[in-house]
Amino acid sequence: MGKLFIELLIFIGSGSDNMMGKNQPILVLSEDVEREQGKEAQKNNIAAAKSLADSVKATFGPKGMDKMVVGNMGDVTITNDGVTMLKEMDIEHPAAKMVVEVAESQEDECGDGTTSAVVIAGELLKRAEEMIENDIHPTTIAKGYRLASERASDVLAKMRVKVDTDDDDILKNIAVTAMTGKAVDMDKDYLAEMAVRAVKAVADEIDGSYHIDIDDIKVVKKAGGSVSATELVDGVILDKERLHENMPREIKDTKIALIGIPLEVKETETNAEVTITDTQQMQNFIDQEERSIKDMVNKIKNVGANVVLCQKGIDDLAQHYLAKEGIMALRRVKKSDMKKLARATGAGIVASLNDMCIDDLGKAESVSERFIAGSHMAVIQGTEEGKSVSLLLRGGSEHVVDELERALEDALKVIAVTLEDRYIVPGGGAAEIEILCALEDYAGKIEGREQLAVKNFSKALASIPRALANNAGMDGMDVLMELRAMHEKDGLKNHGVNIDNGEFKDMMEMNIYEPLRVKEQAIRSASELAEMVLMIDDVIAAKGGEDEERSPPAAQPGGMGGMPPGMM
After folding, report:
1. pTM passes above 0.85
2. In the chain, where the domains are located
3. What is the dotted CATH code of the domain comprising 33-161+426-550?
4. Does residue 115 carry a catalytic annotation?
5. Residue 287: active-site member
6. What are the helix (H) ranges across 161-247?
7. CATH class of 235-385
């Protein structure tokens, strides 16, 4: 039966060819779809990823250069933060977008190491392209990279040093390392100390382990002044001002009510018309509204609140009565800020004034209105729970303040990661060189072509110390050779390059180190990206109608390796 079925298929196929007179192509894809296959697709994807890696390589390290990215609307971003630059760039190529995703995931997970991840990924793909040209199959390369990545994690585990979470000097040095090379380099010591205090203020210690949510640290930016005027406030800063001039500017020993509903006359849920025939009815109508507003204020007063922070609006009449009772009020407070305030003051967010009680009130030492950089701001200090703090960032211009925010965000995250994991590894290229030496020994024990991939993985890691040296005006190859000799012959596994003076020293003794998670995640994510790109041998892309009209054809200048319009 099986044989008969096969013969029948052959007969039908032959008959079709005979009837048509020739073999007709079967069109599976639409004519609007462009396709790339095999090595050509791999080359184009690798080229896109490498170009992004090359664009951020010059920003790497303490002596890295800044980039200016100008948006479509003329907005300017000046930064040497890798992930910020990649986010601001208008990237369309799908493989390049994968690189950006790796940088973003590194930022979310660790806060630092984004440029390292992108540079290593670009170098891995560059080495892979050379191996593909020598007829080494992508699956073999991917397997070798996977083995090398696992081995690198083992080497880092042996190099790691446990941190005492009470040692603020180590935490400060980690923050300094993360901020070195940023626009705020001159004030990094002061900012690092502030960052350590901020993270520890919001840290929750449960069963001997720290759990930290960086969102509990509120960041407020105000251009004007100098970076050294940046301050840490034990509490929450709100970019709001008191609603009525008769309200007190400062209140001590505060009882704070967080109200999630509007302090206004409630509108009816149904459409209705009210006919007023004389002035008395009109007056009664107004009096009833006034009594409703006054009743709301009395409920707030009766529970003992002297500060009202409302997520919604507050009626003008309500403002008048609140001021008359000596209650400070702010309106339209962000939902995220309401949550921070609830955590910091111990208050409950009230959804109904009828159910509000004294237990719903939060406590703080003071609430005051301050005039900062031309605007009024409310500062809630000395909160009872103390689980929320604010950073007021100052700088000479908006660009300086924005870069200060990015630098402090990196510092806060690396401190949080260190407190959670409690392990660090040396910086200055020491970890990469130690892994390089270990991988070259490991490659000799592997049979098959995977050992070539492992060797090339080690060479890719050498791009980190080389980039550090090149960006500092040193000879990257000389630095690389010197460090390799120290690690291989002398066993100085913690030795790296001091960019400031060109000396080779123990990075741990010089207080140059990074969280283990930052280094481990950067290598792992770079390897995973390279493996994913290598396994793509077919790119099927539909042409977009609007993009098709405005973009140059792939064969003309401006197209990238035959990619369809809109994917440049």
Report:
1. no
2. 33-161+426-550, 235-385
3. 1.10.560.10
4. yes
5. no
6. 168-179, 188-202
7. alpha beta
